[in-house]
Design brief:
The chain has helices at 16-31, 45-54, 59-67, 71-74, 80-88, 96-107, 149-156, 174-177, 181-186, 211-231, 251-259, 270-288, 300-303, 306-319, 453-458, 506-517; strands spanning 3-9, 35-43, 122-128, 133-138, 170-172, 194-200, 237-241, 325-335, 349-359, 365-373, 381-389, 399-404, 411-422, 430-438, 463-469, 477-487, 493-496, 501-502, 525-535, 540-546. By secondary structure, the protein is of the alpha+beta class. The chain is elongated. The chain starts with a strand and ends with a strand.
Length: 547
């Protein structure tokens, strides 16, 4: 069954080449029934790509439209002195009618489509600068039958100075909501998919040197401010693409990137391929997160008030920390892809914790805390948590709230509040599963991408460990497992105490890793499993890893 998502596509002007790379990967997964896009919200460039896709236009045709658009023909004037003069006189620098022609070419016999006729529910954001408000064109609204899809896209793409000036009241949607995640959250309707925002990493901006550059810098600042508001939402997963050196208004450079790319094939342009690879890695994590109540962005520990999180942590310690549990078994694993000799760009490591438990007292259980460990300055990303009854009964859906210990940067927690307390009995066992990702779980072991043969052979002579300890268990934990999956080309050495037993069968270790990580092992990967039996409270189970 495909995993559902709601997609928010940010405006970015010329940075739409990165959105194209992202959407190509998404389209492939929808085609393979791995994902289902329930709804799309788009602003400006995001509205253009998302709107056409929602209309049923395949990505290769959208790519052809953009790659074969003559940017020079879009511009009314090209010389810098003329552009400065036109901006000063409030004349548009580009021809909007040319964009309309290209949209109608792309839509073909659907060029007269109205907004309500799209195949995927669609929200398009524009801005009414006369009334200083956001405009939402909603395909499910009654008035959508009277709205042209092309006109809605053009309104959202109405960049001030470029396509529209003081003579127009409706302008680019990025002025009011450049990353349209909030509109999806505000209007939940009957949609259940997690909200995924597609944004861009911030690029360094130069100082404006003339009137035209100043006007564009002011516009870029307004767009960035709208993005920052959307980033503060804690119930949204954020995919940040890399614009590299392409600025918002570098349309010729973006067109050159798309012209060099053949849809569905890699190796034609490094910037495009890098963004598709980044999307692939993000979606691998997204598909693997098997959630009841949705995944959470790791940014929630950054945007939530620190003092509130400290108080929640302290309150839990005072009221719940002394409560003990029976643990049947526990597992802690790392799917360590970052140790590859040539790791893919933005490849992250997945950390998984599973524990099978039941409360040791008859008191109702209405709150749990899950430890989410950071790694140095790295913050966890894409946090998911699932709790289920082992007897197949209805799984509880907790409210998840971030908490943080005072004075400890990497000691984070996720509080799970159960509106209906968990049923407590000797026969009622629960499985708690927490999963998140970090940039690199074992920094001392990582070999740089630029390492030569000799440096790789030597490594960095780092030592790290994989381990977990038993806490709050009334009696010894029946079994504690450590699971590691890593690239075969990485020469790792392991050492452990006599109380830790290694799984000698590679096939059995591979099978256990696939069960824990809920994903098949990549070609060339290795899996290792260690177990310790009857682990007492406070005991540490660990394996030392070295290069």
């Amino acid at each position: 069954m495909p995993r559902k998502l709601q997609l928010a596509l940010q405006g970015g002007g010329a940075k739409l080449f990165a959105i194209m790379a992202c959407m190509e990967e998404l389209e492939a997964r929808v085609r393979d029934s791995r994902l289902e896009i329930e709804r799309i919200a788009g602003t400006s460039a995001g509205a253009l790509v998302g709107g056409l896709y929602a209309a049923g236009i395949p990505m290769h045709r959208i790519h052809d439209m953009l790659a074969n658009t003559d940017v020079a023909q879009l511009m009314r004037v090209t010389s810098l002195p003329s552009q400065i003069l036109w901006v000063a006189l409030s004349w548009p620098l580009a021809r909007e009618e040319r964009v309309r022609e290209r949209l109608e070419w792309c839509l073909g016999d659907k060029k007269d489509m109205t907004l309500n006729q799209v195949t995927i529910p669609l929200l398009i954001i524009a801005s009414d600068v006369g009334k200083r408000r956001r405009i939402i064109y909603d395909s499910t609204a009654k008035e959508a039958a009277g709205l042209s899809l092309v006109k809605c896209i053009l309104d959202s793409c109405g960049l001030p100075f470029f396509f529209r000036t003081a003579a127009h009241e409706i302008m680019d949607g990025g002025l009011s909501e450049n990353l349209p995640t909030q509109v999806l959250v505000e209007r939940p309707g009957n949609f259940v998919g997690d909200v995924v925002g597609v944004s861009f990493l911030n690029a360094e901006r130069g100082h404006p040197n003339n009137a035209r550059d100043l006007a564009l810098a002011i516009l870029d600042t307004a767009l960035s401010a709208a993005e920052d508001r959307a980033r503060s939402l804690s119930n949204v997963s954020l995919l940040e693409l890399r614009p590299f050196k392409i600025a918002t208004f570098d349309f010729s450079a973006a067109q050159g990137i798309l012209a060099a790319v053949t849809p569905g094939k890699s190796g034609h342009n490094g910037d495009y391929d890098a963004n598709r690879e980044l999307t692939k890695n993000f979606l691998d994590n997204f598909e693997r997160a098997d959630l009841v109540s949705g995944s959470l962005d790791g940014r929630m520990w950054e945007v939530t008030d620190a003092e509130v999180m400290h108080r929640l942590w302290d309150t839990f310690n005072a009221q719940h920390l002394k409560r003990l549990f029976h643990y049947d078994r526990s597992a802690f694993g790392v799917d360590c892809r970052s140790l590859s000799r040539k790791p893919r760009q933005h490849q992250t490591d997945a950390v998984v914790q599973e524990v099978v438990f039941r409360p040791a007292s008859d008191l109702p259980l209405d709150c749990l805390r899950v430890a989410i460990a950071g790694v140095g300055n790295q913050k966890p990303k894409f946090v998911s948590c699932l709790i289920e009854q082992m007897d197949g009964g209805e799984s509880p859906t907790p409210v998840q709230v971030p908490a943080k210990a005072r004075g400890k940067v990497d000691e984070l927690g996720l509080l799970l509040f159960f509106p209906k307390p968990l049923e407590v009995s000797e026969k009622k066992w629960y499985r708690l599963r927490a999963e998140y990702s970090v940039e690199c779980a074992f920094p001392p072991l990582r070999v740089s991408e630029e390492a030569d043969e000799g440096e790789f052979a030597r490594g960095k002579k780092g030592v790290d460990q994989l381990g977990t300890n038993a806490t709050r268990n009334l009696e010894p934990v029946g079994m504690v497992e450590l699971v590691l999956r890593y690239p075969a080309g990485t020469d790792l050495k392991f050492s452990h105490g006599s109380d830790v037993l290694k799984e000698n069968s590679l096939d059995a270790a591979k099978k256990r890793a696939e069960e824990l990580f809920r994903s098949p092992s990549a070609e060339g990967s290795l899996s290792r499993v260690w177990r310790s039996l009857r682990v007492a409270r406070g005991d540490l189970v660990n394996v030392e890893i070295s290069l």
